[in-house]
Automatic annotation (TrEMBL):
Top-level taxon of origin: Bacteria
InterPro entries: Creatin/AminoP/Spt16_N (IPR029149), DedA_domain (IPR051311), VTT_dom (IPR032816)
Keywords for the protein's UniProt record, in alphabetical order: Membrane, Transmembrane, Transmembrane helix
Similarity section: Belongs to the DedA family.
Protein's name according to its UniProt entry: DedA family protein
Amino acid sequence: MEWMRQLFEQYGDFVLFGGLFLESLAVPFPGELAMAVGGYMSSLGTMSVFHVMLLSYLGAIIGTTLSYALGAKLGAPFFEKYGKYMLMHPKRINKIRSWMERYGSGVVLISHFIPGFRHFTGYVSGITGFRFRTFLLFNHTGAVAWVAGYVWLGRLLGKRMEDVLHVLEKFGFWALCGMAGLLAAFVLIKRAWQASREKVRQAQDQPGS
């Protein structure tokens, strides 16, 4: 974490905005760590917590919006041919696409919290023709919670932050499984409820009922 702190002391604004922007375009960068360190620096009085959150948020949403535009403009053939240079292999694109087809806006909403998803959700949303207004609503809303959560985590935990981030990284897969399970349960319950209502409606429409 020391190297990140030194970067903040010299290039704090660029680290937050530029780093989160580049990460949203699938450029490798430890976004969560940068936000948490920014929160920690705000607890020392060297940066304003609002300043840290604003720069992080703007970097994240501008990057994901640009990735959506690139996905819509370049289309699937471009990424099928050149996506491997951005770690966007066809298998990964199809996986994100299938999740979006199954769970819709919910995937966009929580994608910032899912490593390996937030970097590519914008591209895939553009490629698949996901409605732009809906993407902006759910992507930007999810970014608020993501940014605020990690910045305040760093601010509240201070020097203990690095240990906590290691724990989160270690158990991040199980947290992802838990979120996916909750989302799947919600979808199944919703579909079962809609199916039961449809059966009741059909029964009422039958002659003599």
